[in-house]
Structure formats: structure tokens, C-alpha cells
Amino acid sequence: MIDVRNRLRGREGLLLAGDLLCFLIFAVVGLRSHEEGVTLGGILRAATPFQVGWLFVSLVLRRQGDEVSDARQVSRLWVPAWAIGLVLRTLFFDRSFAPAFAVVSLLFNGVLLMLWRSWLAPLVLRKG
């Protein structure tokens, strides 16, 4: 059985918080670039499906004890999480599939997650 509560504590919880922040950055940058205005509804629509997909894959499908800290490991988890996010976005936010958005969300979020997990997180979470 997967103990999700233990995965949300300590280092793992901080890593996931940083992951979720990456999706918020994606949402804000996207909303600003399309001059839609940064609203709570817009942020929820852009970030939440990918956050849910990432949480599902990283908490439920990832093996216990696996440290996700390099580009290959991030991309192995990000691709299915991205696909889940696209499906959730279509189903719950009544957004049609847009190939351009799919590519941008795959690449932008993937790069943010890789930068966070492989470069910034080790600096922030450095063991004293």
C-alpha cells in the first residue's frame, strides 16, 4: 500500500511544493503572454490539471524511495502526468484539444520541472 502522507513530509513534501509552484509559474506566464489577465479561474484552468496529473504520477505510480532528481527521471514521470493533465483539462474545464498548447505545456512544464528538480532543489534542500 502506498503511504501518501509519508511522501508529503519533509524533503519529499518540499520537492512536491516546488513542483506545484512550477505549474503555477506556467499558468501565470501563459495568461500574461495571451493578455488574458491573471485571474484565479485562469490559473486554476491552466495549472490544476497538470498539478493533479503530476501528483497522481509522482505519488501513486512512482516507486517508493525513487528520488526524482535528474532530467531522465523527471521526463519519465512528466510525460504520463502531462497526458493526464491534458485529459483533465478537456474534461473538467471544457477546453478543446489544442496541439500548440499541448506542445507548449509539455515543453515549458517539463523544462521547469527539470530545472527545479535537478538544479534548484538541491541548492534549496542542501543537507546541513
Structural key phrases:
globular; about 130 residues; 5 helices
Average pLDDT figure: 87
Low-pLDDT parts are none
State the major sheet.
Answer: none
Percent helix: over 70%
Principal-axes shape call: globular
Annotation field: number of helices: 5
Please give the alpha-carbon distance between the first and last residues. Answer: 32 Å
Oligomer: single chain
Query: How many domains make up the 3D coordinates?
Result: 1
What order do the helices and strands follow? HHHHH
Structural class: mainly alpha
Strand content: under 5%
What is the number of strand segments? Answer: 0
Rounded radius of gyration (Å): 15 Å
How is this structure best described in words?
This protein is an all-alpha fold and 128 residues long. It has one domain. Helices cover 77% and strands 0% of the residues. The chain is built from five helices and no strands. 23% of the residues are buried. The mean pLDDT is 87.
Task: Reconstruct the topology from this structure.
Blueprint: H1 4-7, H2 10-33, H3 40-61, H4 71-93, H5 99-124
Helix pairs in contact: 2-3, 2-5, 3-4, 4-5
